[in-house]
Write a structure and sequence with these properties.
The complex is a heterodimer of chains A (about 230) and B (about 600).
Chain A (H helix, E strand, L loop, with lengths): L24 H4 L4 H7 L11 H5 L9 H12 L17 H14 L9 E6 L6 E4 L6 H12 L14 H5 L3 H8 L2 E6 L5 E3 L5 H7 L2 E6 H11 L5
Parallel strand pairs in A: 1-5
Antiparallel strand pairs in A: 1-2, 3-4, 3-5
Chain B lengths: L20 H8 L5 H8 L3 H10 L2 E4 L7 H7 L5 E5 L19 H10 L5 E5 L5 H10 L5 E5 L2 E4 H10 L5 E5 L2 E3 L18 E3 L9 H10 L5 E3 L6 H10 L5 E6 L6 H12 L6 E5 L11 H4 L4 E3 L8 H8 L6 E5 L3 H11 L5 E5 L13 H10 L5 E6 L4 H10 L5 E6 L14 H10 L5 E3 L6 H10 L5 E5 L5 H9 L6 E5 L5 H6 L1 H4 L4 E10 H10 L3 E6 L16 E9 L12 E3 L1
The chains are: A alpha+beta (about 230), B alpha/beta (about 600).
């Protein structure tokens, strides 16, 4: 698997919904519908609003009134589960969904509401991806998401060695540990300089990061030298 | 027309067969509708030639229906072209990436054959920066660029347009995915450039240089439509309005700010100066306190698009109720039934209503019911087009709506949960939708939802005599449903179906019908490969495309006839099978 050697990153292993869901819609277009079938929490098991009874109504006469009415009543109190998510249903344009998602995250207290998409490239990968930095709350989050996203490009390559605690404690360790690892995460800032990810506080980083690049460790050594700062 | 044959007393007989082309072309110029021009062209060879040589506007509803070069050769005088690409369901994520619909071949052919092209419009297509560069450099009098739901280009491509198109009048970007390369595309308009009439960059995510925008707006005295993006804050909107009081259409972009009385005063004053404002839109995470700043323009508004506005409550309703001349209203279901009741009472000239779901996957909170639609259809006599998302419906409501509003031309109802029955009687909604098609004789577009059996399709097939587009999801119970549609609906052009138990038989039985239609989409139905092969063989002028799991790579030739087909997309074409299919699309 791909390991990104962020300074201070922990080993992954969190089950996280693919950030692919947050990427530009052109890349998130639904999996083939047969996969969608597994996404539908249809219809028997879940206590959906009268629908589960109704979905079988073609087989049974519509006399399922009592349980359905109960469900409907419960529904009006908003007690039911969220609707099953079927790909492409309800038919709301992806564009609209993304715009509203941006507003919703704003309502939850994010700063200016619009998603902050940045391109992510990786040395040797045939195409780039995009991530919304606002979907992550820390470097670890981002690192894990990117690992998931790009692991498909690592074939037959050994995973990275993550920096040991001893490495992290010493200043100069950054350069050495980078060279030992295969990949390093870098970003382009507003001045179009390529910087090593991890030096700035996360919130500040999200505002100034324009692009991300997963570089080979050997290439990145020079960058690390440029941006080396005293680390806590 | 055939008056043919020589006659004595030729002075009495108009020389139809020898009218000079210029006369014919002049006559045809009075036929704006493509259908009428098509009919004229079918009269005789003379008329065919005159019509096609003089055709100025061309609409290609399916980019694969004809080869770009053929279209350009056939209609050499085209000044305005519109091309549409991906199937409609691509909007909802049912078409994986890299499906096709590239604009490049069309731009290349146009660059070769239509040097005088003035207008180009692409919808649901992949438009690259190279396309935009080619447009900018190929047409010396290029004036109008409209891109709707497109992708594949960046602000660098926009810069090519703004720099190269010296006579640009309209740059209209609607709901596209635009890569932000931080290039200052707006700055590339030369200082001498003043011809802009429409500028819509509402879908752009990035910042624009406000000073440049302001100067542009100041010097383009013919600017009528300005739709800003989210990056432009409220106080800047006020400044722009002062520079462009002649605006007819404004999209405010982001409209959220803490309430400040001086900003309010600024906005109010700015809007007071806009006597011509008729259309208003914006992504209003609005602080409702600002809405009164708009009161002075309410009376004049004919179109209000609040469908990206999460504002709600009494201020919203009060605002809309002042828009007495509203013809088009797009809102979120946050308006709720009582809000629509107010609309019904205030907006007697309403023609089009769209109500979008604020929380499509929410936990069943019923904000909006059938009540709202019943009220509006009862009180708005000119209402003819509806798109309505809601959680529940009854046959009684639909029957009432049908009785009140036989003048619907577009009726799209989306009940959020698939297969939802009439919540009072628990029956299917067959009766309700049947009432709609029986009453609305002029219905051209219909989307059905909720619990529906084959019977509703019998009714639609029999009564949908003007129906051109039909969308069906999670409905019907057997092949009969599809058969009713395909054997009825005389004028059907586009049929899109998902998740219905429709199989091979009705498809094959009505194969000829498919050539009278523009396209058919069927996904998650009960089709098998064998039937698709038969269809393709029977109907050589149709392209039969199969789409399966992008991960699966096994070629379709090797699969047996009884393999299930996940997605079928069939369309008529004179260009033969396309050559740009991705791996997951196979043409049978």
């Amino acid at each position: 698997t791909l390991r990104l050697g962020l300074p201070g990153s922990e080993s992954p292993d969190r089950d996280r919904d693919g950030p692919a869901d947050d990427v530009a819609p052109a890349l998130t277009l639904g999996p083939a519908p047969h996969k969608a079938a597994s996404k539908r929490a249809f219809p028997d098991a879940s206590p959906h609003r009268g629908c589960s009874a109704a979905a079988r109504a073609e087989d049974k006469p519509p006399s399922a009134a009592p349980p359905a009415a109960k469900l409907a009543a419960a529904d009006r109190q908003g007690l039911l589960l969220p609707r099953a998510q079927v790909v492409g249903w309800p038919p709301v344009r992806n564009y609209r969904k993304n715009t509203l998602a941006a507003s919703a995250s704003k309502a939850k207290g994010a700063d200016d509401g619009a998603p902050h998409y940045v391109k992510v490239s990786m040395d040797g990968a045939p195409y780039l991806r995009k991530v919304d930095l606002k979907m992550y709350s820390s470097y670890e989050d981002l690192s894990m998401a990117l690992q998931k996203m790009f692991s498909c490009f690592i074939t037959g390559q050994s995973s990275l060695r993550k920096p040991s605690t001893k490495d992290r404690l010493t200043n100069r360790s950054n350069v050495d540990s980078l060279q030992d690892q295969e990949y390093v995460l870098t970003y382009e800032d507003k001045d179009a300089d390529w910087m090593l990810v991890g030096d700035l506080p996360w919130d500040l980083f999200t505002t100034i990061c324009r692009k991300l690049k997963i570089m080979r460790g050997s290439d990145a050594a020079g960058i690390a030298g440029k941006t080396l700062v005293c680390r806590k | 027309m055939g008056r043919g044959g020589a006659r004595d007393g030729a002075a009495a007989a108009p020389p139809w067969h020898s009218l000079p082309d210029e006369v014919l072309e002049h006559a045809f110029s009075f036929l704006p509708a493509a259908a009428d021009r098509g009919a004229a062209a079918a009269v005789c060879h003379g008329w065919l030639g005159a019509e096609r040589r003089s055709r100025r506007r061309l609409a290609v509803a399916n980019c694969y229906a004809a080869a770009p070069r053929d279209a350009v050769d056939r209609f050499p005088s085209v000044r305005a072209a519109e091309v549409k690409g991906k199937p409609h369901f691509a909007d909802f994520g049912l078409v994986p990436p890299a499906w096709g619909a590239e604009a490049a071949p069309w731009v290349a052919a146009a660059a070769d054959g239509w040097p005088l092209l003035e207008e180009l419009s692409f919808k649901r297509m992949v438009v690259t920066d190279e396309c935009l560069e080619m447009i900018a450099s190929s047409f010396r009098n290029f004036q109008v660029l409209r891109l709707v739901s497109c992708e594949g280009f960046s602000t660098a491509g926009l810069a090519a347009i703004t720099e190269g198109c010296r006579n640009l009048r309209e740059l209209d970007l609607q709901e596209n995915y635009i890569e932000d390369c931080s290039s200052h595309w707006l700055s590339y308009f030369p200082e001498s450039f003043t011809s802009l009439e429409t500028l819509n960059f509402s879908c752009l995510e990035g910042e624009v240089n406000f000073a440049v925008l302001e100067r542009l707006v100041s010097r383009c005295r013919n600017l009528k439509t300005l739709k800003l993006n989210n990056a432009i804050p409220l106080d800047k909107v006020a400044s722009l309005l002062r520079k462009a009081p002649q605006l007819v259409e404004l999209g405010t972009g982001k409209f959220s700010a803490e309430y400040h009385s001086d900003l309010f005063a600024k906005l109010e004053a700015a809007f007071a100066g806009c006597k011509s404002l008729r259309r208003l839109s914006g992504a209003w995470d609005a602080v409702p306190d600002y809405l009164p700043a708009f009161y002075c323009v309410c009376e004049g508004l004919t179109s209000l698009n609040l469908s990206y506005a999460t504002v709600r409550g009494p201020e919203l309703i009060k605002f809309i109720s002042r828009c007495k001349n509203l013809q088009q209203l797009w809102v979120m279901d946050l308006i709720e039934d009582h809000g629509l009741a107010v609309v019904a009472g205030s907006c007697s000239k309403l023609q089009e209503l769209r109500v979008f779901p604020s929380d499509p996957f929410g936990a069943g909170q019923v904000l909006l019911t059938e009540r709202g639609l019943v009220d509006v259809s009862a009180s708005c006599p000119m209402l003819e087009s509806v798109l309505y998302f809601c959680g529940q419906m009854t046959n009684e409501a639909l029957i009432t709506i049908a009785k009140n509003r036989p003048n619907f031309t577009c009726f799209r109802l989306c009940i959020l949960e698939p297969r939802t029955p009439d919540y009072v009687t628990r029956e299917s909604l067959d009766a309700g939708f049947s009432a709609i098609v029986e009453s609305c004789k002029g219905l051209r577009r219909l989307s059905v939802s909720g619990l529906l059996t084959d019977l509703v399709f019998k009714s639609i097939g029999a009564n949908g005599n003007c129906l051109e587009m039909l969308s069906i999801a999670f409905a019907g119970n057997s092949d009969l449903g599809l058969h009713y549609i395909l054997s009825g609906c005389k004028t059907l052009k586009k049929l899109e179906i998902r998740d219905c138990p429709f199989g091979n038989k009705p498809l094959l039985a009505n194969a000829a019908k498919l050539e009278t239609m523009r396209s058919l989409w069927m996904s998650s139905c009960s089709l098998t490969l064998g039937a698709c092969r038969q269809l393709a063989e029977k109907m050589p002028r149709l392209t039969v495309e199969i789409m399966n799991d992008p991960g699966r790579t096994c070629p379709v030739e090797s699969l047996p006839d009884d393999s299930p087909v996940e997605t079928l997309y069939v369309y008529r074409t004179i260009a033969g099978p396309r050559s740009d299919t991705p791996d997951y699309v196979q043409i049978v």
